[in-house]
Amino acid sequence: MAVKLPRGFRAGATRAGIKPSGKPDLALLVSGLPAAWAYAATRNRAAAPSVQRGRELYASGRALRAVVVNAGNANCATGERGFSDDRRMAEAAARRLGVVPEEVLTASTGVIGVPLPVERVEGGLPQIPLTPEADAFAEAILTTDLVPKVAEAEVAGARIVGVAKGSGMIHPNMATLLAFLVTDARVPQEALREAWRGVVDRTFNQVTVDGDTSTNDLALLMANGAYGEVPLGTLLEAVEGVARELARKIARDGEGATKLMAVRVVGAATEEEARRAARAIAGSALWKSALYGNDPNWGRILAALGNSGARFDPLRVRIALQGIPLYAGEALPFDRRAAGEAMRAEEVEVLVDLGEGKGEGVAWGCDLTEGYVRINALYTT
Hints:
Blueprint: E1 9-14, E2 26-41, H1 49-60, E3 64-73, H2 79-97, E4 104-111, H3 118-124, H4 135-140, E5 149-155, E6 158-165, E7 178-185, H5 189-202, E8 218-228, H6 232-252, E9 260-268, H7 271-282, H8 285-292, H9 298-306, E10 318-321, E11 324-328, H10 336-342, E12 347-353, E13 359-366, H11 370-377
Parallel strand pairs: 3-4, 7-8, 9-12
Antiparallel strand pairs: 1-2, 2-3, 2-8, 5-6, 6-7, 9-13, 10-11, 10-12
Helix pairs in contact: 5-6, 7-9
């Protein structure tokens, strides 16, 4: 069933010939009204021109009207040409929509170091049919993803729809993910921006697949006000729910993954330490491998905790897996075979209590499989 965008938004996609597969690879997301927006992007020092341009637009404070996305070419590490091609992509989208380039955000994802065939972008943009549905856009932005990722919510009549892509090269701050959330609620831009960083930190920055942080990722929230005002706190809670659902879908679709891992840490000294500890467990290659093999090797969880930087006394730590207590200051007796069987589920939960305070945090990851190695061993060959 098609997912309808909030009032005033349209989207679409086409096959521009950027992806060797011939699949849809060029997409537009458009607001009929100037939209307030909030933005977060990779902290990778080798950030792509699209990210650097996005930061400049963000600092200007002006409204946003559209996003143009190329999926198939990162347009990163391509010298001065990369910056020129990124500008041309924005200018072509602006001509298509009758707006100024400074109202158009660009996003690119794909192979690093290959010049962008910008002429194909310029030729493809006029061919994109714009509709009030999100599905074509969600399909076109994928790279190694197996499935599109869409989430939605409604608050007092206003709608929120989120679309994301991400499967590999995923680690906090941020990851190879693109996330676009839109709402027809009216929100002051300052309030939107103040809240968005916290939402991103608690959701997209809590996803890890392989410990690598991308050069191109971004997370965007647009609010065009076409519906009107709704209670801000309720709206932001729903926005975070949509972002959380997208984050979980990204982790579940990790390259080669067979299961989703949810790590919940409670009893930390602070929320930040809880989130850091959860990320360390979700990102441990040793524990991710054990997860794939259905091996309840809790020692790898404890070791990852010890490297997280979170404060704790090992004698007060408690660890449970799928609800089965494994450790409480010392090893607990448990049925290893039963625990291994419980790990065969599509979603596996790790619960850790640090016994230090009231801080809580959640992170999402996946198992590490031979499939991940195959995908990335042959990525450009």
